[in-house]
Amino acid sequence: MCDMIDSQSAEKISRMKKLRRTLSESFGRIALKKEDSSFDEICVTKMSTRNCQGMDSVIKPLDTIPEDKKVRVQRTQSSFDPFEKPANQVKRVHSENNACINFKTSSAGKESPKVRRHSSPSSPTSPKFGKADSYEKLEKLGEGSYATVYKGKSKVNGKLVALKVIRLQEEEGTPFTAIREASLLKGLKHANIVLLHDIIHTKETLTLVFEYVHTDLCQYMDKHPGGLHPENVKLFLFQLLRGLSYIHQRYILHRDLKPQNLLISDTGELKLADFGLARAKSVPSHTYSNEVVTLWYRPPDVLLGSTEYSTCLDMWGVGCIFVEMIQGVAAFPGMKDIQDQLERIFLVLGTPNEDTWPGVHSLPHFKPERFTQYSPKNLRQAWNKLSYVNHAEDLASKLLQCFPKNRLSAQAAQSHEYFSDLPPRLWELTDMSSIFTVPNVRLQPETGESMRAFGKNNSYGKSVSNSKH
Questions:
Q1: Would you tell me how many other CB atoms lie within 10 Å of the CB of residue 328?
Q2: Better-predicted residue by pLDDT, 81 or 250
Q3: Could you tell me the pTM of the whole model?
Q4: Bridge partner list, 233
Q5: Architecture, CATH, for domain 56-106+128-211
């Protein structure tokens, strides 16, 4: 009896041992698969991080940027304005807005075809897009607290480029404006918007590689003081409106329009640049920071504390730039503070009230007793050269409206009578076509006396001295 029991016990023990071995092997295979899977994920992540440095890498859309992290950046006299460090920055490694960390390939283990097409087939050591050694620095164009801009040359195709090298601090991470600028520009393809060629991300720097444009409107006007040639003003303004209409139709506000941010190529092509303060305007409207736009080009509604604005914000800047190109001096050059800036605006356009500007009394910084009561004037009284050019004063007056909703849109402004003598083909161009592809469209020589001569010969204008103000 005992032998029978021992035999049964031994058999049970044997079966249990076999079951344990089977389970052990099963768990071992599962663990091995899991380890392999983790390894694959690591490989894909590393590949993604490398590929995101390429020209067509995917960057987090701007709408993912939290509202509470919006910052203001003061601009300096640079085409790309990298020179002021934002108050808030984003951790480079852990931020959801870091393009490289969050880049994801469409299928695991496969290289993105857009990134792959930029790789040179000749040899593994050939220059490639997305690599720091693919560009040669030729000269420094400017330097600031968190970025340096260089003129450079691509070793891939030999073209000149502008290298905006943003220094990354381990504790502070990638400047928010850089993420914002790269995020927006990757999706904007237009002849009148500066082209972002490439993005290079290393441990120490983030480099934005732009097409090289040799000057900006500020430098151009400094070189040709006293007002630009009227025909050149018209072509510059038309291009500015083309670029703005393009981004506004995509619900993007530039928010920092000024001559320094309008690049001018050697052929006269104008390009919108520096999208560090730009915002994608979602629907329904969010409340945005009122600390935007350089003071001279900041609209009165923003100066008075309004944070609910739309594309009309940019259109005020267009009006200021238009007047400055014609007159040769800034339209509203405030020298002290916001109060002084508003006084200069009201001196020309009149001090607003509820009749001329519904809702003005509800704005945070509007205190009627603080402002001198001015009556509105004709714009030619403030800027006499507007009267030299047919329909220029009317267009300027429709852009420089204190009440935001009264300002002309970019699209409507292109149809203004001021542009009626331009070739009709300009309105039929595709987004990436330059206006200078149209026959007989070209810049006129700037002689320094062009505006005065134009005034003598123009039936609408009258001759006056070209004095400096």
A1: 20
A2: 250
A3: 0.68
A4: none
A5: 2-Layer Sandwich (3.30)
